[in-house]
Amino acid sequence: FSLGDELPKLYCKANTLYWAKALLTMTYDFIDSAILSTDSLPPFKIPRLRFVEARLALAHSQFTKGLVKPKFGGTVCGIYLLEEKIEGGSTAFTKYIHNMNCKPSLSADKDGYDIAKFLAFTQHVQYSKSRGLVFVSDYQGKLNKLGLIPGC
């Protein structure tokens, strides 16, 4: 992509990841509050998941005035989305919930099914707490780390 096309796309992806993290935090706050308001713990383990860390990095052109002290400035000449590495690459990812269906993508006998069921629950909480405005629809990852591929 040209820089003019790439900047809004990467900004959109970074912003989507930011909001996905916020929605997951809201869900855990809801769960923690519900647990504190009861006398007994749930009879199942609640997975503690998180989205990968990511940041936007903008590279600027550099110019020098004189030979002694360089000065930085100029225009943006590159943009990068820096994401935390998930070992094993894309083949190690588990697709928990597809973006076209709110049901787990895994069958009940597969590893990760309990996480997929939990993530379906998080969608319900997000949808309910946002009064039907939003929920994360494409969950994938490895172990406790979730990745996000938004359609920007």
UniProtKB/TrEMBL annotation:
GO terms for molecular function: ATP binding; protein serine/threonine kinase activity. This is Alpha-type protein kinase domain-containing protein.
